[in-house]
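Hello,

Our lab assistant flagged a job as stuck in the queue for most of the afternoon. It eventually completed. Since we weren't sure the result was trustworthy after the delay, we are filing this so someone can double-check. Below is the sequence as submitted and the structure that was eventually returned. Let us know if re-running is recommended.
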Amino acid sequence: MICCREAINMMQRQRRGGHVFNIDGAGSDGRPTPRFAAYGATKRSVVHLTKSLQAEMRMQDVKNVVVHNLSPGMVTTDLLMAGANTKQAKFFINVLAEPAEVVAEYLVPNIRAIPTNGSGKPTYIRFLTGLKAYSQIFSVKEYTYYNEIITSMPPEV
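-- returned structure --
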């Protein structure tokens, strides 16, 4: 919050203004994040912070600073892999997680396409949409998680 405040204050003083990009993650949609409750809670709050800052910019008639939200989806990270200790977790990582480079190939051009002339509107750029996730889950044939082959969705827990 402090970083957003300081960045917005600095950008308002610049002739060209600027853009703030907040990044959400697991839990940002309100779904639970077992074993990662604090992480999920902070990511949920990122969405609220972004929407609140957008509203404040409108209330103050700030036109040269825009606050956006990025949703990279499930990115292969040490944190994600640390939680991959069940067959079900491994299945979803195999099906949904992407390396950072793949996510960046999508996000960066979308970020760069946002107008920089001060007329931009807030955006919510999502890499892993609900539709994409469902289609990946239900079209899965075979995925490799390290040396383990997962060929079907595990039973519900």
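-- support follow-up --
The delay was a queue issue, not a problem with the job. The result is valid. Residues 2-84+98-129 form a domain with the Rossmann fold fold (CATH 3.40.50.720). Residues 26 and 153 are 20 Å apart (CA to CA).
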